[in-house]
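2024-03-11 09:14:02 INFO receiving multi-entity request
2024-03-11 09:14:02 INFO entity count = two
2024-03-11 09:14:03 INFO echoing inputs for audit
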Amino acid sequence: MTGHNDNALELINAEIDGVITGAQRAELNRLLLADPAIRALRDETMQLCRALDSMPREDLPAGLHDAIVTGLPVAPAASGTNRPRRAFANLPLLRYAAAFAGGLLVSTLAFQLGKFDSAQLAEDELAGTIAAHAEARMIVNLPQAQGSITLKGSAANPQVVTSLTTTQPVSIVTQLHGNGMVEVQVVDDATSNVLQRGKLRVGSAH
Amino acid sequence: MNDESDGVLVRRTCSGEPRAFEGLVRRHEKTVFNAALRMLHDREEARDVTQTVFLKVYEHLGEYDPTHKFYSWIYRIALNESIKALQRRKPTTALDFEAPDGTPGPERVFDQAELSDGMAAAIMSLRVEHRAVIVLRHFMDCSYEDMAAILELPEKTVKSRLFSARQVLKTALETRGWTSE
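2024-03-11 09:21:47 INFO inference complete, emitting structure
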């Protein structure tokens, strides 16, 4: 593109983006009057941008908001500090997938046995509103493990489905609470540190 | 909660009110999801990216520099996560979005649905750096200054890239038969 057209292109885009100055508008008007090719370029670019701006914004997929909020760890990291992690051994949790590492792990756990309530997880610990959905997913995006942990089924018979790629030994620790809620922890086997914690819930309402 | 600024909600979250974070999620989730959707052209991947973005934001909230705009920070994470998702794809996936060939197609009038589908496919045919500026400007309503901050590029470079991206996109649409008449 020539320097002449570069200048015209910049002026046209400045006009479209609403940042054109008075002097630039005068210059653009002069170019438009003098050159039909620049008029065509302006019309085409304007129409393109109108088409882009008129593209519909998609609604959020059902359940995504709740999945985001309920999949959050219990508390964010404080500024400039390393948040202490509680070791899983100190918690009365079910450890169902011990020490797997390297490659992809896909597994399903159905809570048929060992269902218990715990007062340890108080409602005020919850990071946001929990709603009942047919499926809730926690994304895991850690240096040690990547993938997802999904809670499916019903409140009476929840199932945890893991699909994780790991680079070092981690455990998935779960605790079933009442009303179809499952607390999930990803634990570093080498240090017993909880790398990620979330709460997932399914319900019979949907 | 909805009237509170992003900065206030960030401070409240970091001060031990995790429920305040839901206000930030509610405010930005639709924009983040739509940006991911335009970058990836896949609702499931966009859904996962959106969830990852807010997880990362939450976990790194203590590192947020309040002298910068919060949405610039979250949009940068959204773009980076979308690009990571693209890089994880198998190479054959990208072929689905290439133009049929390099020659202009027959000109005809598109209805809105066809135009949206054609536009989405044309956006996917752009190089990632071009796609990113189109998404930032037209789907996230970012100014040149915002885009420069998000992409960590000089504003002049961002403008030049956006103008080029629009021309490439126009050509991509023309190969699909789109006309500006």
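2024-03-11 09:21:48 INFO post-check: Chain B touches chain A through 48 residues (CB under 8 Å).
2024-03-11 09:21:48 INFO post-check: The two ends of chain B are 46 Å apart (CA to CA).
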